[in-house]
Design brief:
It is built from four helices and no strands. By secondary structure, the protein is mostly helical.
Length: about 190
Amino acid sequence: MEYNTTAELQKIYFSNSQYSINPSVGNEGYDSLLQWPSNGYFEKFKPDAALLREVLTLYDRPQYLSVAEQVFGTQARQQKLNLKHLANILYERAILHARHLKEINRRLMDCHEKLSILKMHFPVDGGKSAQNLEKLIIQLEEQHRKEEIDFWKDTTEVRGKLFENAAIYTATNRRKAMLYDLEDENA
């Protein structure tokens, strides 16, 4: 009987894996953070991976820029990227919320159709199946309301952070512009 060596196992499970390190990315020390799987659910994180790459490379700016740009430029760009990230989170949550509501509404419509058919064919009989459908409709309507409230609760914190960061970004840009104006006056 022949056993696989550790090197062979590593080759089989890691080098051909969707999690393998991409040699074309570079060796900056943070590449492992940027290695998202190439398929499946993690495809949704590609915008965040691009933003993360931008945040981690913000400090590679030339030093010949104005003093205002050197002092506040990187901070402003990083805050802008943070705003984009929060907007991505809000967008993803909104899409998920819409998907949940669509599914609940589809199921609710099916139940209403079945109930109306049942009432047309058996108008006098208030049978158990009609009662079960009415209970299910009530439960689905409760789920719909709960989903809307949960979405509001989930996004409250993100929306608050979005507005706070927008104010900070605006203030940083204002300071940068003021320093730039001072540079122009002294030049």
